[in-house]
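README: folding subset

This subset contains proteins for which both the sequence and a predicted structure token string are available. Records are stored as plain text. Below is the entry for Gamma-secretase subunit PEN-2 (101 residues), shown exactly as it appears on disk.
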Amino acid sequence: MNLERVPNEEKLGLCRKYYLAGFALLPFLWLVNVVWFFKDAFLKPVYTEQLQIQTYVKRSGLGLLFWVTVLTTWITIFQHYRAEWGEVGDYLSFTIPLGIP
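--- output ---
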């Protein structure tokens, strides 16, 4: 999508939609929101919708940072303690590695 051709009102609407959709446990949309709208929010000359777009981009970035932290923590804990959890660790695994842990 070429955001250069989109009017500022539509950019604001699209940015808001991606921000709200991220709450449906889709943090990838927050990443897309930050990447797509960072330039419009912080690097372009001031326009009327820019302050709202900045708010959505900042909040999307914070939400993304939160989810990256949570998922990294969970993956680290799971990988470290999966074998010690016994059956529960096996039930939570998609594939069970072979060999001695």
